[in-house]
Structures are given as structure tokens and as C-alpha cells.
Specification:
The protein is an all-alpha fold. The protein has six helices and no strands. It has one domain. α5 packs antiparallel against α6. It starts with 7 loop residues before the first helix and ends in a 7-residue tail after the last helix.
Amino acid sequence: MAKVKPSPQRRWPIWAARVAVATVCAWNLSAAVPFILAPARYAPEFEVGGAGGEALVRGMGILFLMWQVPFLPVIWNPRRHRACFAVILAMQAIGLAGESWMLATLPGGHEVLRATGTRFIAFDAAGLALLAAAYALAHRPVQPV
């Protein structure tokens, strides 16, 4: 028996979800790769320096890279990989909450670090909003055509 292809009205939410998740993944990779390849350039934004600072920033880049693994099955099939989708939503929310807490508890006199934290918060807030919209699109009830 031949498999019937869904109509465009049923496919567009999945493709929109894929694009949204891929966009957030690309944003995350846009931080991961430079942190790994040129950590000395970014170390001052975290008020660290020398070999230890470079290792710290490179390590953050490696973590960002690792965190992209669950994005791949979600990009492939956002409806089927619901557990991975939940994981990336949770990771994004934890990142946003943690960064917000760190910024709120940062003492005065660290303006460069505060600016870096603010950029990470904006980045993760936008990513969380996009991922939540993608989840809603991918898991909305399918309407009969």
C-alpha cells in the first residue's frame, strides 16, 4: 500500500518548526565555534585571561557544541522526537534562568561581564520563545483537510 503524502496545509507547521529549531541551533553554534577556535578573543568578555581563561572559554564552546546534539533529531522530525524537543526546551529555560540569576547576583564594578550576561540572556530568551513557538506548531492537533 502506497504511503499518502500529507497536504501542504498539514506540512507547513512541521517545516516552520524545523526552521525555528534549526535557527536556534545555528545561533548556538555561532557562539560555540568561535569560542572553540579563538578563545583569547572572547576571554576578556568574561573577565578571564591567560591560558586558564582561554581554556575556560574553549570549554564553554565545547559545552555549547555538545548541547546541540538533541537539536538534530528534532530538526529531522519535530513531531516524532518529542522527548528531545522537551530536553532542548528545558535546557534553554535552565540557561535563561541561570544566566538571569548570575546577572542579578553580580556585584557592581563588572560592567563588561554584565554586558556579556545581558547578551546571553537576550539570546536565550529569544531562543526559548522561538523553540516554544516551534513546539506549539509541531504538536498542534492536525486538522482534517
